[in-house]
Amino acid sequence: MVSGDDLVLKVYETYPNDVFDNIDWKKPAVKPSIEMKDSHALATTCYASNGATKTIVTGGRDGMINVRSSESVSGHDAFEAHLTFSAHSVLQGGVVSIAID
Fold first, then answer.
1. Distance CA 25, CA 46 (A)
2. How far is Cα 87 from Cα 101, in angstroms, rounded to an integer?
3. Closest to 3 (Cα-Cα) out of 62, 83, 52
4. Tens digit of each residue's pLDDT (9 = 90 or more) over 26-69
């Protein structure tokens, strides 16, 4: 998962493994498999996942926490945030770390 300047959280199935010196900068970048528009208003700063519950939790500089499921949840698509709540102040730097069981 990567969050860029556009603040959209992108999911890649394969992580780019090119050696930095050998990257062809004229070639377009690999397209992400999924783009999650319901990302953080500011940068995504951390994430945690649990394979057993198929849950992905992200925290952002906006102080919000988004809970996602890698499976479809009633009324939501896979990877769409089905729970969002405020956790920390933006003045404090937002959410800087997350751990889930």
1. 28
2. 18
3. 62
4. 888 777 776 766 778 788 888 898 888 888 898 988 899 998 88
Joined together, the tokens standing for residue 89 give: 């102040």
**Domain segments of the chain: what residues?**
2-15+25-92
Is the pTM higher than 0.70? The answer reads no
Residue predicted with more confidence, 16 or 76: 76
Largest CA distance in the chain: 46
